[in-house]
Amino acid sequence: MTQDEDRRIRAGRAAGRVAHVCAAAATALLITSCGTADDPKGTAAPSAPASASASPKASLAPIKPGEVRIAGEVDKPYTITLADLRKLPQAEASVEFVSAKGDQKHTYQGVLLHEVLKAAQPRFDQSKKNGQLRGVVAATGGGDYRAVFAWAEIDPGFAKSQVLLAVSEDGTAFEDSAGPRLVVPQDTRGGRYVSELNQLWVGTVDPVVDGAH
Q1: Which of 40, 80, 108, 138 would staple 201 via disulfide (CB 3.0–4.6 Å)?
Q2: pTM tops 0.85
Q3: Are 24 and 32 in contact (CB under 8 A)?
């Protein structure tokens, strides 16, 4: 082997070692910058959505015994009690219906449900013809019992019935801690005579119907 050939071989080996060192350095730099699956400190964590740490609206305060919360798609949600209801103009309804206890016949005194809900100013779409006819009311009572009404059932502009938030039955006042009872004179069964009423939710069917697939 000549001296020139020996120098070329040595030079090639040196160049290979330099290339190997550069490649290793580049790999180390990439690992440090981006991290790997085995190095949790170097792995960038996905950012949480803004909504994950904050509720879109403040949670409602707990309902106290005897209180009724009027809420939903309304401009002025509020809470009312039996004491408040007794101060309002009273109506009376003599009714007959069938319940799990058999035939019932009672006279109730109370406030018209329509008047209580109207005070909350439901947000019905006035650009729609008879927009209030899209309205619904969900009444919740003790034990998470719930019944639903169409707005037209309680609106005197469309129905003759007078659904009441009753404060007494046959002359005996309900206890304040029990809250009022819904009375639905047009019903022949007592399923919607919601006892221990604690919430009235007003809304419209539009989000459900228009969002249906």
Answers
A1: 138
A2: no
A3: no
Lowest mean pLDDT among 7-16, 30-39, 129-138, 174-183: 30-39
Per the DSSP assignment, residues forming a β-bridge with 166 are 110, 181
Per the CB < 8 A criterion, the answer to whether 95 and 169 are in contact is no
Tens-place pLDDT, residues 49-106: 333 333 334 456 788 999 999 999 999 999 999 999 999 999 999 999 999 999 999 9
Instruction: Give the separation between CA 146 and CA 199, rounded to whole angstroms.
Output: 9
| Distance of alpha carbon 201 from the chain centroid | 10
In the sheet with 78-80, reading across from the earlier edge strand, the strands are: 78-80, 68-72, 199-204, 135-140, 146-150
Q: What is the CA radius of gyration of the chain?
A: 35
Q: Which two tokens stand for residue 152?
A: 């037209």
DSSP state of 52: G
Interior/surface letters 39-53, b for 16+ CB within 10 angstroms, e for the rest: eeeeeeeeeeeeeee
